[in-house]
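Shipment paperwork, digital attachment
Item: protein structure file
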Amino acid sequence: MTTTVKIFIVLNLLLALAFMFVQMTVYATRENWKRRWHEDTKQFSGEIKDAAQKIADESAAKVTAEARAASLSAQINDLQVQVKKQEDTITSREKEVQAQRLTLSKNDEEIKQLRDQNMSLSATLEATRQSNIEKTHIAQVARAVAFQLNVKLAEVEDDLNSTSTALTQREEDLTKLTKDDNDKAAKLGIIKERYPKVWNDVADQHQSAAFLQAVVAAVRNNPQGQQDLVMLTLGKKDLVEEGVEFIVFRGSQYVVKVRAEKVLNDMVACRVIPESWNTNKLQIQAGDLAQNRL
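Attachment content:
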């Protein structure tokens, strides 16, 4: 019980005693104060008991109310703590919501970019499909061309075989010519040894009207893909001079003229004279004949 309650009870008692004293004094000066005293005393005693009981009830109620108030205060404090926690939670949730909104905004932007990228990829895919269709068509054409090239290659291989056979025959002919030249050289050697005067006359005549004939051994193209350098089967022993021009022909067909640039021991390197090409678009081939005059 608190001090305020005790003071309140004491004041009530004092007031009750004061009231009783005043009443007793009033009744004492009136009629039959003894009778009235007993009656009033009895009445006041009941009233005091009732007042005391009421004071006790009020004190108990007040104590209960104070206990209830303390309990409610504790509950209020707990609720305030919970409210604080809830406010903190709400603030945290608001931050999370803000972060989620920012994330959603970024996701929307990424989705927009992905949609744009998807549209671009779709356009690229369509272009790729179109390109693949075109490439498929090109591949089909290339297969047809490859087939034609294979047929042409077979024909070229047949021509090559024929040319190789002709070249072998030309080499055999060249061997025979070389043998004949060697025989002629041996005979001229005998003439030179036995008949010097006749040899001098023949040598002068040979030098003034020397006839040179060779076979094309190899052909080289320049970087532009044009035939440029020709190797002939002649050498220093054939007395070939640099600057001598040769006519290249195949059978009865004229091909081109070439000019000797460098004379080796067994080969002569000749440069093609560009303005002398034939009008039939014939090209030089290994095995073609070359002469300095017809």
